[in-house]
Protein: Phage antitermination protein Q
Amino acid sequence: MNAVTVSQGRKHFTVAIDWNEHPIEWHLEQYGSWLLLDGNGETYLGSRGILGHVIDAENGVQVDRRFRAPPRCKIDVFHAMAVEDLLSHIMQTENEKVRQWMKCVIIFHVDFKNEKEIARKLGVSEYAVQRDKMLGLVRIASRFKIKSKLMG
Structure:
């Protein structure tokens, strides 16, 4: 464990939770649902809170930018921190190509966007989004030995 993790009292993400209890897709979608709970997005992402969304809604600004319905949140803050640490670790240690794959995985599973919207946002084809999403999930599952719906 590195000094920062120990000093914060956080377990390393690989041992903080039981990753094999559910597939990686479940963990990512639960993390996305957890971020949508009141205050979590503001506290952990620095984005605006629920009051800002209410003001935006009154001013006619589109508030909910999801394209898919998220599942009911079934994780706690420690589980969310483990998923957050996993994603952060991957984005810091992998090469540019894998980071591109991970962008597709995160936008799809955490932000609940559909493949068409991801393709528009990243300026690639829908096929490229499907491919990158699949490759990103396989990379996580194979590198950290976490089960995935893709790999059985």
